[in-house]
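Chapter summary example.
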Amino acid sequence: MKALDAAIRTAWLFVAWWALAEGEAAAVAFGLGAVPLIALLSWRLFPPGARRPRVLATFAFGGYFLVGSVAAGVDVARRLLSPRLPISPGYMSYKTSLPAGSPRWLLANTLSLLPGTLSVTLRGPEIELHCLDTTAEVHDAVARAEEHIARMFPL
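The structure predicted for these 155 residues follows.
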């Protein structure tokens, strides 16, 4: 099973490489040598865990993430373009109930990719976030992201 896992990870990394290289032949050819090395390094740094994401929940998470990204981006733009500039930046801590490993890493990285929040540190179950607006319902938004990620993994 490990060989299959390695092949799948390498294939996904190559697809990502191809997309980032926009299909340019020279970059794709370089990727044929670089991607296996990247896959080996990723395997050493992030070995596969016992928890594998559920396929349908992963697609649902993708939809949630796309809608959330657009909505949060519009909200950030509205705030920054407003003459009153209704922001109150600062830090907040959030204690996640997700288990260590992929679920926590996915939550921390998801929050960094959504406009208005940035994961600063992840220590155990505690995530420290820098928020564009600490007066908003950031805690609820983080909890919703955590719920979506929890559905992806058989917890």
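To summarize the output: The beta strands are 90-95, 117-123, 126-131.
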